[in-house]
Structure prediction request, 122 residues.
Amino acid sequence: MKLSESVAHKLGGRGEDAVRAYLEGLGYEFSAENYFTKYGELDLVMMKGGEAVFVEVKTRKRAAARDPFESINEKKQGRIKKAAEMWLSCQEKEYSCRFDCASVYLPEDGEARILYLEDAFC
Prediction:
């Protein structure tokens, strides 16, 4: 059964909130979320030590047979990179950057479980 778009959007937002809180707990600073471009959306943009960190978040309600990171294929990575270039071009200063991925499992009866991969793609 496929989730309705509004339910999926709410679920994704909860996952992004969980990842943001997790990263802020590690000393990252929030910069932007759901940054839309003609290439697609950047889920989270966080800053750490003068570096822009673009975080793609995949949220699941149930444990899935498929690895959520599998959906971040080369085509998706290319769109994220182009969207990141647009975000970077709008900044007043230059930043080095990296691309991270987070998989969030949000069971209805428990806390979020996050698997976080730094430098997930170049």
About this structure: The CA atoms of residues 36 and 42 lie 7 Å apart. The chain has a mean pLDDT of 88. Helices lie at 5-25, 74-89.
